[in-house]
Specification:
This protein is an alpha+beta fold. The longest helix is centred in the middle third of the chain and has 29 residues. It is elongated and about 65 Å long.
Length: 164
């Protein structure tokens, strides 16, 4: 089992939080659209009652349950092996890639600013965080959810280091 990425020179570890890329945001939206379509189709099956409505409803329910199980299994697996995580330290942060390796690391001394964009709708809820740095390309990632704990921890750590 992978224990995560060691942040040499970044101080004491404060926590690990899940992050996502564009594909994670699109997957969240597709899941929610799929569930909404499932509800509409089940209501139509009940209201219209075509031949073999029970069998059609059972197949759709099985598909939704299997996909939900796969999502839960992926969440558990990615958390266990440290895939797509943001490790927050007292002196910086490390973001891992899809395979658990270090994608990028940032020391607070390199940071020039933080840009944050939040979006909340029925189909997609996220916080996009972009950390700008001296002479390097910005580090951007998504924290999915309405109020993810990563955003509060990151803002608190940036405030402690005098970054707005």
């Amino acid at each position: 089992m992978r224990r995560g990425v060691d942040g040499p020179g970044l101080g004491r570890k404060l926590g690990s939080y899940p992050v996502a890329g564009v594909a994670g945001g699109v997957a969240q939206m597709a899941r929610r659209v799929g569930v909404a379509l499932y509800v509409v189709l089940v209501v139509c099956l009940v209201a219209i009652a075509p031949p073999a409505a029970f069998a059609k409803g059972a197949v759709m329910t099985a598909v939704v349950l299997v996909l939900s199980g796969l999502v839960l299994a992926w969440r558990r697996t990615s958390a266990r092996f440290g895939l797509r995580q943001c490790h927050l330290y007292t002196d910086g942060l490390v973001v891992t890639d899809l395979f658990g390796g270090e994608w990028d690391a940032v020391a607070w001394s390199e940071v020039t600013g933080l840009n944050r964009l939040s979006g909340a709708s029925v189909f997609m809820t996220f916080h996009r965080v972009e950390i700008t740095r001296h002479g390097l390309k910005p580090l951007a990632f998504l924290a999915l959810g309405l109020n993810p704990p990563l955003v509060e921890a990151l803002l608190g750590q940036l405030a402690k280091n005098g970054i707005r």
